[in-house]
Amino acid sequence: MRYLRSGPRRRQPDESAVSRGKTIGLRSGEIADRNIRVILEAIRRHGPLTRMELGQHSGLTGPGITNILRRLGDEGLVTSHRRSGAGSGATATEFALRPDGAFSIGVRVRQSRGEAVLIDLSGQVRDRQYFPLVPTARVPSILSATQTMMGRHAGLPIIGMGIGSNDWTSQESDELDAASIVVRSHVENECTASLLAERTIGAPAPEGGLAMIIIDEDVQAGFLVRGVPYSGMHGRAGSIGEMLTGPDNVQLNTVVGFGALRALVSDDEFKCLIAGEEASSPQLTQWIRDAASHLLDPIIAIAGFIAPSTIMIGGDLPRGAIEALIHQLSVERRDTSKRPFLTPWISPMKPASFSGGGVALGAALLPFLNTLLPPVSA
Fold first, then answer.
1. Which CATH number does the domain 17-97 belong to among 3.20.20.370, 1.20.1530.20, 1.10.10.10, 1.20.82.10?
2. Strands 78-84 and 91-97
3. What is the pLDDT of residues 151-164, one digit of tens each?
4. Can you name the residues that pair with 113 across neighbouring β-strands?
């Protein structure tokens, strides 16, 4: 956008909480950029707001807020109208987000299937498309799907594209950016994208952090600590699918991943399940029992070492299946015949707020977080 002096930001290495809080050494253009993002985020999350209320949320002065609001209005990102006073007859101008001011596309990329969403500035999904992916030619598949989507919404101010994937390569990014009509793409792993959706659009991040477990062909976890995703050394944090788990000491992916589910249920039931449709069968119940018996081990480790306020579980499975899995996890944690100890410290568990774990939605937020809203390290 024209008013962003410092331009889009790429993902930066993790920093300490102390360094994140400092603004010493920032250029004036970077400070102005940060203040604009803070005001827009306050309006997005809490609006409509008056200038006085924006000052309370941001700590900025009145003249600075007025200048920022004028620039945001010129860019078509906020609107204003008069707010009537409660009984006194006094009025004040309040400012609200203009959802149609900017749009973004997010794509969740797996080996053989993809999901694309188009969202507006408020985070509302305006369009969604599922499409097959050719493992050896994923970029052409994504281009075809996203260009079809953009054709249905010609003329919208689409500012970028986000990719949520665990195995996306820099070569694929270069190929996508060279062929796409969108300015450029931004990439995050699936769990981080899911956490960004929860943090930005879902309920406010609970004090103490958040953990997300995504179940797909593999099983992975992500962590939100003080509002910032934690990736660990070489991005290895959350690779729980490789753990040896359960009484039989087998790899988690082989019991909880979709390969194990596919082997138990019929082809038709599996297709229904990954499409988010509710289903019920003895085979699905058996998978839930096996999955809970093995998934409990990494959950105990997460709760013991990181102690998040909430552990969320998401993926393509329907909400009913995830709720049944969480219930079975509660049963397993009380069963001392398998583990000779109780685990009262385990964090509360609940399903992810969004379908697919919110991966595509979180990916769609990446262009906003890199150009308009406070970045993930803010």
1. 1.10.10.10
2. antiparallel
3. 999 989 999 999 99
4. 132
